[in-house]
Design brief:
The complex is a heterodimer of chains A (341) and B (339). With 341 residues, chain A is α/β, with parallel strands linked by helices. Chain A has 2 domains: 187 residues, 3-Layer(aba) Sandwich (Rossmann fold); 129 residues, Rossmann fold. Chain A is 35% helix and 20% strand. Chain A has 12 helices and 14 strands. In chain A, α8 links the parallel β10 and β11. The radius of gyration of chain A is 20 Å and the shape is globular. The N and C termini of chain A lie far apart (45 Å). Chain B has a single domain, classed as Thiamin diphosphate (ThDP)-binding fold, Pyr/PP domains (Rossmann fold). Chain B is 40% helix and 9% strand. In chain B, α1 packs across α10. In chain B, β2, α6 and β3 form a beta-alpha-beta unit. The chains are: A alpha/beta (341), B alpha/beta (339). At the A-B interface, α3 and α11 of A face loops of B.
Chain lengths: 341, 339
């Protein structure tokens, strides 16, 4: 085991896969320098021209990756902020993600898009969004969002080895967090589509991912102080997501809270809640609760940004709400988390 | 050279340049002690924005970028309201919802400010389209850096503007001269195959000129021609204003590497520090303009010092106002959305 920062684990994952597979190349704005946060620092020294700077041309760089992927390379593209994936949507949505299907499986596009995001440090509405739900709605995509350094490395390695397009989401609030990462290359690879139970519990299930996992674990600690044992699941992969682990947990607890940083309306939480309610209605003792941002763009001012990002207290409130819901047949009280502003 | 303008207008432009310079310097000073997020300053480009935007009239619009502070001050936006917005205060232009990257003041012709590189270009063409459709002789200005030319939106925007002869001025502030880019641990510089930026304009048949962004006469004349062309139905223009990157804008975060500007450098070269001699003596457009005003006898060193003292005091007041202003209430985060 080594103790690594999340951002170093990303670099490690890139480095290991580039050593394993000469077809892996890294493309992005100023990636030879390391990018704005240093995720690719040092890779140009180790891998030379396989680390390539690009102009500020998101659409063409993503399209270039699609073309390179069908022609023998495994590109890893860095989009500096997930907010700017918007510029590349045609190339990713209409081309990359649909390639395998539209060719009836003849072609595949083994490519990874790394993008960081999240509301942290007052960067305003163009540099703070959480947009995973858009891609969770897109047939042909794979979406992962690690919360620990071990998963950052392991999921990135799995993403690079995938033969189809993967969106790999980083939250910059996690970059400097440290954690244990296994040393042996292959053992660290984390399978796509597998969630992990971070904390066992029997009273309710909290599922989250990425930076919101910290709040979910804090919430579980807070609830434990009152004798409530929450099971906390780190979903890690958002498309596909691990229904087996979710259903097994809900089967034990009967209550589920989904917590994410993205706005609640139309978020991944809605899909998870719908699927769980469709498949585990008999086991559910209360409606699934969602915790997410209010339906506004990320505001700039620190005070407003803090109001935008949900914290452990919001998760605790939602947990108490589902625990307080009377047995089936009673009238549910309104959720404490309004979906609309 | 000085623009062919009455002396009071030239002195007023100097005052605006100094107000911008002192605003940005005060902001950098403030950033050292406060967490204000990433921001970008306009130091070194005042001699472009001030004479260019002085040619706009009420009702004309300008779309700008992350490096917007100087543009807003040039068109009369309150520095106190800007500083408060940059600190995320309730008294800010946008009550803390926008921040430095999205300063907007529709009343001053800044409908929105984008931090998405190239993002404002189509929107600027859209305003020009509306002016045409509505029969207004208004002008829309797109302010952007050389990096925006790397985006597809640039090519699509100038194509549509050229086809429609839209009243839009593409004012590209190329501040990458002498920039080394991130490989030298600096702010990025441009990544373009074109040798001259105007090569990217020529195929569209749009008049394009490249000029020294510290030459206020060149800026004034090119912009005046572009404004006249736009207002008279002649269509779009492209201006590349070249400036050397201010040393304090080379790092990823702005720093006062050169120290604060001393206006006396303009008349007393002995005072210029050796370390940044090239910048102060030859590259800073503000000092160049001041030297030209002094040389033409339009102003004395005493006049310049008095204007500068006023500008410093105003910006110190703006920063104090911002610091003392309250933050917005958290529930304000939920305002101004619909559905």
């Amino acid at each position: 085991m080594s103790t690594l920062r999340f951002i170093d684990a990303i670099r490690n994952g890139l480095d290991i896969e580039m050593r394993r597979d000469p077809s892996v190349v890294v493309l992005g704005e100023d990636v030879t320098y390391g990018g704005p946060f240093g995720a690719t620092k040092g890779l140009a020294e180790a891998h030379g021209s396989r680390i390539r700077d690009t102009p500020i041309s998101e659409a063409t760089v993503v399209g270039l990756a699609v073309g390179a992927a069908v022609s023998g390379l495994r590109p890893v593209v860095e989009i500096m902020y997930i907010d700017f994936i918007t510029l590349a949507m045609d190339q990713l949505v209409n081309h990359g993600a649909k390639l395998r299907y539209m060719t009836n499986g003849l072609l595949r596009a083994p490519m990874v898009i790394r993008a960081q995001g999240g509301a942290r440090g007052s960067m305003g509405a163009h540099h703070s969004q959480s947009l995973e739900a858009w891609f969770g709605h897109l047939p042909g995509m794979t979406v992962v969002a690690p919360s620990t350094p071990a998963d950052a490395q392991g999921l990135l390695q799995a993403a690079i080895r995938s033969d189809d397009p993967v969106l790999y989401l980083e939250h910059r609030g996690l970059y400097w967090q440290k954690g244990e990462v296994p040393d042996e290359d292959d053992r660290v690879v984390v399978p796509i589509g597998k969630a992990i139970v971070r904390r066992p519990g029997s009273d309710l299930t909290i599922v989250s991912w990425s930076h919101m996992m910290g709040a979910a674990l804090d919430a579980a600690d807070g609830l434990a102080g009152d004798g409530i044992e929450a099971e906390v699941i780190d979903l890690r992969s958002l498309l596909p997501f691990d229904m087996d682990t979710l259903l097994a947990s809900v089967g034990r607890t009967g209550r589920l809270v989904v917590a994410h940083e993205a706005v609640t309306r139309g978020g991944m939480g809605a899909e998870i809640a719908a699927q769980v309610q469709e498949r585990a209605w008999a086991e559910l003792a209360a409606p699934v609760a969602r915790v997410g941002a209010p339906f506004v763009p990320p505001p700039f001012a620190p005070e407003l940004e803090r109001a935008f990002v949900r914290d452990a207290d919001a998760i605790i409130a939602a947990a108490r709400h589902v625990l307080d819901t009377p047995a089936r047949g009673g009238t549910p009280t309104p959720s404490p988390e309004p979906v609309e502003a | 050279m000085l623009p062919d303008l009455p002396a009071p207008e030239l002195v007023a432009q100097l005052r605006t340049m100094l107000r911008i310079r002192r605003f940005e310097e005060a902001l950098i000073g403030l950033a050292a002690d406060h967490e204000i997020g990433h921001f970008h300053v306009y130091v070194g480009q005042e001699a472009t924005g001030v004479p260019a935007l002085a040619l706009l009239e009420d009702g004309d619009v300008a779309y700008t970028t992350h490096r917007n502070h100087g543009h807003l001050i040039a068109r009369g936006v309150s520095p106190a309201g800007m500083a408060a917005e940059i600190l995320g205060k309730a008294t800010g232009l946008n009550r803390g919802k926008g921040g430095t990257l999205h300063l907007a003041s529709a009343a001053h012709g800044f409908p929105t400010t984008s931090s998405s590189v190239g993002g404002p270009l189509p929107i600027a063409v859209g305003s020009a389209f509306a002016f045409q459709e509505l029969g207004l002789d208004r002008v829309s200005v797109a302010l952007f850096g050389d990096g925006a030319l790397e985006e597809g939106a640039w090519h699509e925007s100038i194509n549509i503007a050229a086809m429609r002869r839209a009243p839009v001025i593409f004012l590209c502030e190329n501040n990458s001269l002498e920039a080394l880019g991130q490989k030298a641990n600096e702010y990025p510089s441009s990544t373009l195959a074109a040798v001259r930026l105007t090569d990217l304009v020529d195929p569209f048949g749009v008049p394009a000129v490249a000029l020294d962004g510290t030459d206020t006469r060149a800026v004034h004349e090119a912009m005046a021609a572009a404004v006249a062309r736009a207002r008279s139905g002649g269509g779009p223009s492209f201006i590349e204003a070249r400036t050397v990157r201010w040393p304090g804008n080379r790092p990823l975060w702005p720093q006062l590497l050169t120290g604060e500007t001393d206006v006396a450098y303009a008349w007393d070269p002995e005072r210029i520090p050796v370390e940044h001699e090239k910048w102060w003596a030859r590259q800073d457009g503000l000092l160049r303009f001041l030297r030209e005003l002094l040389g033409a006898g339009l102003l004395t060193p005493g006049d310049a010092s008095a204007i500068d003292t006023q500008a410093r005091a105003e910006m110190a007041g703006a920063m104090t106002f911002a610091l003392q202003s309250p933050f917005p209430r958290p529930e304000e985060a939920l305002e101004h959305v619909f559905a």
